[in-house]
């Protein structure tokens, strides 16, 4: 069964997600940006979500995690929780 590790940043607006993505692409540290901006409890761990299998996250999130290249920030990804920036840190298909 496919497994992945990922980290994310959750914010309430697409505009904020795009602003943070630009900062990360410009060299800002993902974990630090997560700690300072993410509304998810995972922000305390720099957005780390740990290991999980396919189907354990909401469908929109799952689709990105199991298709995006490892180590490339994706998003904004809209879910019922808000807008996510997602970085797959490891995946075993």
Automatic annotation (TrEMBL):
The keyword Acetylation does not apply. SUPFAM superfamilies: FKBP-like (SSF54534). GO terms for molecular function: isomerase activity. It is found in: Cytoplasm. It comes from the Bacteria. Gene3D superfamilies: 3.10.50.40. The keyword Isomerase applies. Residues 1-90 form the PpiC domain. Keywords: Cytoplasm, Isomerase, Rotamase. Belongs to the PpiC/parvulin rotamase family. PPIases accelerate the folding of proteins. It prefers amino acid residues with hydrophobic side chains like leucine and phenylalanine in the P1 position of the peptides substrates. This is Peptidyl-prolyl cis-trans isomerase C.
